[in-house]
Amino acid sequence: MKELQQKVKDEGVVIAGSVLKVDAFLNHQIDAQLMKKVADHFYEHFKNKGVTKILTIEASGIAPSIMAALAFNVPCLFAKKAVPSTLTEEVYTTDIHSYTKNKTSHVVISQKFLSAEDKVLIIDDFLANGEAALGLYDLVKQAGADCIGIGIVIEKSFQPGADRLKSEGLDVLSLCRIASLEGDKVTLIGEEE
Ligand code: G4P
Ligand code: NA
Ligand code: NA
Fold first, then answer.
1. pTM for the full model?
2. Which residues does the UniProt record annotate as the domain Phosphoribosyltransferase (predicted)?
3. What are the sequence ranges of the domains in the chain?
4. For the chain, which terminus, N or C, has the lower number of CB atoms within 10 Å?
């Protein structure tokens, strides 16, 4: 997705050669028009798969996911990283370890919002090691639902996440794929020397 890739190059800030800060349009301030176009790309790719639900994880996955939910005309469900006191019904849970943040989150969704009839499109802002996406996939499997694919806004292709998901047989669509952040410079797939 050209416009997203240009935005990443123009406004992304590389931190310590491995983390890309995209606070200008995705992780802090959100560019709604860009998120709508992101969602339209997910829709174009997955529209014939019978999607009944978008699944993501709070917080940063919600922006692209709510736009996708609008495009597919289905609900957006987000996994919560802490068990809220208001969540009193039965839940599916899984542990997601973040290497970036060196922290494990015990994430939950209510069983009443995901069932064996669902065809789920998982969406997230970043794909790095794949822990978040694999955790969401685990929740889908616990519900007996189908995961029809995974939509990612920014993939750090130099990390193992995409390969891990593909080796599970999942259809992964990443709209911006980063080959390297070395030298604090964004190099996209296809731009390598
Ligand atoms: P993984 O899920 O692919 O294994 O990624 P990892 O554990 O490395 O990353 C954990 C968190 O950091 C995730 O957000 C993920 O989206 C984000 N992340 C990973 N690499 C980058 C990066 O280069 N730049 C930015 N901006 N984020 C990155 P999270 O913990 O779920 O937090 P939230 O922001 O969604 O609340
Ligand atoms: Na994030
Ligand atoms: Na995320």
1. 0.96
2. 26-158
3. 2-188
4. C
